[in-house]
Design brief:
This protein is α/β, with parallel strands linked by helices. The chain is built from 37 helices and 33 strands. The strands form 7 sheets. The chain has an 8-stranded mixed sheet with strand order 14-24-23-16-17-18-19-15. Strands 26-27-28-29-30-31-32-33 form an 8-stranded parallel β-barrel, surrounded by 5 helices. It has a 5-stranded antiparallel sheet with strand order 1-2-7-5-6. α15 packs across α21 and α28 packs parallel to α29. The radius of gyration is 34 Å and the shape is elongated. Bound molecules: adenosine-5'-diphosphate (ADP) and magnesium ion (2 copies). One magnesium ion (MG) binds next to loops.
Length: about 900
């Protein structure tokens, strides 16, 4: 390889030299053209200039040494194969020049067809086509148009206007009504447009046309839209694009010619059948451009049965070969079929599941592969409610689907109004040009958020995803006027109070209330749809693939649930226990008063009395949860947040006290409360008196909770159930903290449990970096670790989540400092490293130490793979995310086995 490099690096590959696995070198289009060529399918001869040539060009601003010569060689062999020469005035070879990167990318240079035509060869082309002047001049005008627009940046509208004018002159809308003379005239006009914008004549040298087109493809890699797209999609900036040079075949030679696109199955639903469009007497780009109305592919059977049958045969062959849905582009030249492109086609989330299931039925793939073909993001998408399929609303705008779901509501333009109307029980959609941190309350109150600016990483998008709220961003057809409380779109005005509907998956915006329907997949998970007995391909496929994932996965999946109702729901979704039961809600509502007494206690016995009153309430809470999770482990976290969170806010209290004093009322109690709030005020509550620190400072608090847990477990056991409590101490940073809590807890437990057979584990959260770094010591006092990845992320980065997400994350994402918020997906390098250290050192100190995750990352697909790799025992996530975690835990096994044997 190295030797070859010094001689002459290979920059050009004939189609017969490549294959589908060379996407990095040949781009997707080139690799698949090569694959089809080698399958013996009818692909017009051609060659691919590699992405390496592009990289070299972009690095130096010049075509690398040897490239020109290799292009020449390949061109010559193309000429030999076709018996034609590029630029031959009698019988010209024409080629297309097509970009094609590893990942398909909007914003890059498209395609130039008919390269090689000039004032002389257009005559030869006509003669070769049996005197078809119309065809020849049509091809020439297309070359000037595409070349002008994509290679020389001539505004495309100018060509389109000239074409429209030519049609108007003939009083027609159909380009087929233009005859050879009209098209010859159009070529003249096009050349003038070209000259006006570029200051030079349209190049007549075919090889110069070719070289300029190739260079334009290289340079389009760095076009603004392409750069932006790459940044958003996390595509590396240095891959470069390949260039394909393909012998032209002509769909515009007459009624027995044409061009089309097709899918081997329906990419929307996954249903089998023939899906495609065909356009007679046209060149490829006409189908996409919508110049004339296409006909359904089925009609080709009447027009040209032989080509139709051949096409269907090829599609079946491609599916069998790629073992997946493929999309294709083809052209028929006078009854001869040519394949111009194929790739594994994009599909909706529903189609992904359905197709994977079908391919298993057909024996093309096994269930492991089916599992690999779908993902948690798709499953999550299928679990959102969506707009009814057959609704008749037309979208008025389309933005970016920034946070999925379907939402309808009354339009409001300010955060304050959103909060007001939401308080009245109304669904509202907050509409802004862009949101900023001041809009946070409005975003919380709204059903959905719609912005006219910004992309997937704008403030609105980032915050909405964090909240799980439907959001469409960057709907730039919408003109928002906040002071006037209205927006205009498609010539209509929408005022505050009008109703709109937004689809956070597709980005579509509708006026009026589009009916929403529940997700069938959720109904299935909830047990109200029986996959064996309904005719629903999607539900059956989901069932099958989920069952397989459950059989494969090594990670258990638990849920975060604080109430019996949540626990029951999560269990239906497949949760195998509770990984995080927070206890703070058990101190709210009408129990607040007891908490106040606990905090304000002065006289001896007051605190004890408050705790004693709380004990039975807590016990009942736990009994309910243990009952719902009968037989499964339940991790209960002792109280975590700072106690002042249970007291009224300072300002409100201060005002109340002042007002009451003014009126001469007795305010002793309020004054004591106010003093306590002042005393307990913290500058950085996230880093203050909370978690285990609270337990060590407030005597009896943890003890009461431990007793409530143990008593509840015993009472469940007496009733014939099996409770498996795991007591979790939050915010531990040093083993001494845990030892202190443990000593007291063990005494209470052994006293309560007696000979009931109940077993209670005691463990800790690992959420302070110091805990991760001293995990070996901490494991001496812990039977389990549960990673609190939210706090661990906050403390590892020094971020206060509530502040940073709204304040500057959008900027960090824009700059690429991180590709995704570390609160959404685990930061493998930093936070992940802490987790690895803690897992390894914890297990080394205590073999059999149980390891889990209870942060929100437990339901994030990529994070689940990471936790699998680290070898944790379980992840825990919100009930709704449980199916996603089950699926991804199964996929993690398949992918680890499949990729290597580490
Ligand atoms: P895109 O990626 O935008 O589809 P393509 O390179 O696939 O761009 O080409 C645009 C259109 O031109 C397609 O319809 C394609 O089938 C057609 N086309 C490309 N090369 C040729 C060729 N050599 N002969 C005939 N049509 C072609
Ligand atoms: Mg294409
Ligand atoms: Mg925490």
């Amino acid at each position: 390889m190295a030797a070859q490099e010094t001689v002459d690096h290979k920059y050009v590959y004939d189609f017969s030299e490549g294959n589908k696995d060379l996407k990095g070198l040949l781009g997707g289009k080139g690799a698949n053209l090569a694959e089809m060529t080698n399958l013996g399918l009818p692909v017009p001869p051609g060659f691919t200039i590699t992405t390496e040539a592009c990289q070299a060009y972009l690095a130096t601003g010049q075509e690398p040494d040897g490239l020109a010569g290799q292009i020449e060689q390949h061109l010559e062999s193309l000429e030999r194969a076709m018996g034609k020469r590029l630029g031959d005035p009698q019988d010209p070879l024409l080629v297309s020049v097509r970009s094609g990167a590893k990942f398909s990318m909007p914003g890059m240079m498209e395609t130039v067809l008919n390269v090689g035509l000039n004032d002389q060869s257009v005559v030869g082309l006509s003669a070769q086509a049996g005197g078809n002047d119309r065809f020849a001049w049509d091809s020439y005008r297309r070359l000037i148009q595409m070349f002008g627009k994509t290679v020389c940046e001539v505004p495309g509208e100018e060509f389109e206007h000239a074409l429209d004018d030519a049609k108007s002159a003939k009083s027609t809308h159909n380009d087929l009504d233009l005859d050879a003379d009209d098209l010859r005239g159009l070529v003249d006009t096009y050349k003038k447009i070209f000259l006006k914008h570029t200051g030079r004549e349209f190049p007549q040298q075919p090889r110069e046309q070719l070289d300029l087109a190739i260079r334009a493809v290289f340079e389009s890699w760095n076009a603004e839209r392409a750069v932006l797209y790459r940044r958003q999609e996390r595509i590396p900036a240095d891959l470069g694009t390949a260039v394909n040079v393909v012998t032209m075949v002509f769909g515009n030679l007459g009624p027995d010619s044409g061009t089309g696109v097709a899918f081997t199955r329906d990419p929307g639903s996954g249903a089998q059948g023939i899906y495609g469009d065909y356009l007679a007497n046209a060149q490829g780009e006409d189908v996409v451009a919508g110049i004339r109305n296409t006909v359904p592919l089925q009609e080709l059977e009447q027009l040209d049965k032989a080509s139709y049958d051949e096409l269907l045969g090829i599609m079946a062959r491609l599916e069998e070969h790629y073992k997946d849905l493929c999309d294709i582009e083809f052209t028929i030249e006078r009854g001869k079929l040519w394949m111009l492109q194929t790739r594994v086609g994009k599909r909706t989330a529903a189609a992904a599941f359905v197709i994977a299931g079908q391919l298993v039925d057909e024996g093309l793939i096994d269930l492991d592969e089916a599992l690999h073909r779908v993902n948690g993001a798709q499953l999550a998408q299928l679990m959102f409610p969506r707009f009814q399929l057959d609704h008749e609303f037309e979208p008025v705008a389309k933005g970016i689907g920034a946070s999925p779901g379907a939402a309808s509501g009354t339009v409001v333009f300010t955060s304050a109004r959103a909060v007001e109307l939401a308080a009245e029980g109304k669904s509202v959609i907050l509409v802004r040009r862009e949101t900023n941190p001041d809009d946070l309350n409005g975003m919380i109150a709204a059903k959905g958020i719609l912005t006219s600016r910004g992309g997937k990483t704008s403030h609105a998008a980032v915050v909405a995803r964090g909240m799980g709220k439907t959001c469409v961003s960057g709907a730039d057809e919408i003109d928002v006027n906040v002071p006037a409380k209205r927006f205009t779109v498609a010539g209509q005005t929408v005022n505050e109070g009008d109703v709109v509907s937004i689809d956070g998956t597709t980005g579509k915006v509708y006026l009026g209330e589009v009916p929403v329907m529940p997700s069938e997949v959720v109904q299935y998970f909830e047990g109200s749809l029986d996959p064996e007995h309904i005719d629903n391909a999607l539900v059956r496929a989901v069932h099958r693939i989920m069952t397989h994932a459950d059989g494969k996965r090594r990670l258990a999946v638990r849920t975060n649930a604080d109430t019996g109702a949540d626990a029951a729901r999560a269990r239906r979704f497949g949760a195998e226990g509770i990984g995080l039961c927070r206890t703070e809600h058990m101190f709210l509502g009408d129990r607040r008063e007891l908490v106040e007494r606990l905090i304000l206690a002065r006289a001896p016995g007051e605190r004890e009395a408050a705790l004693e009153a709380l004990l039975p309430l807590q016990r009942a809470d736990f009994e309910e949860i243990f009952r719902e999770m009968d037989g499964l482990p339940v991790t209960v976290r002792l109280i975590d947040p700072p106690l002042h969170e249970f007291l009224p806010p300072l300002e409100q209290l201060a005002v109340n006290v002042a007002v009451a004093q003014e009126r001469g009322e007795d305010v002793a109690k309020e004054e004591a409360l106010l003093a306590a709030v002042r005393r307990m005020h913290e500058e950085n509550p996230m880093l203050g008196l909370r978690g285990v620190r609270l337990g060590l400072v407030i005597p009896g608090l943890f003890a009461m909770q431990v007793r409530a847990i143990a008593e509840a477990a015993v009472s469940c056991a007496r009733a014939g159930g099996v409770a498996k409590p795991e007591i979790m101490v939050p915010l531990v940073g040093a083993v001494q903290e845990l030892e202190t809590v443990r000593a007291e807890a063990e005494k209470i437990i052994s006293e309560v449990v007696g000979d009931s057979g109940v077993e209670v584990l005691i463990g800790t959260m690992i959420e302070v970096p110091r805990a991760a770094l001293t995990a070996g010591q901490i494991a001496e006092a812990a039977e389990f670790f549960s990673f609190g990845t939210n706090d661990l992320t906050q403390m590892a980065w020094g971020f206060s989540r509530d502040d940073v997400e709204g304040a500057f994350f959008w900027r960090y994402l824009e700059l690429g400092i991180f590709g995704i918020s570390p609160f959404e997906s685990i930061d493998r390098d930093g936070v992940g490293r802490l987790i690895r250290i803690a897992a390894e050192e914890g297990r080394a100190a205590r073999p059999g130490l149980k390891l889990g995750v209870c942060g929100e990352h437990g339901g994030d697909p990529d994070s689940v793979h990471f936790f699998h790799e680290v070898g944790l025992d379980y992840v825990s996530c919100s009930p709704f995310r449980v199916p996603v975690a089950r699926l991804e835990a199964g996929r993690a096994v398949v992918e680890t086995d499949g990729s290597d044997s580490r």
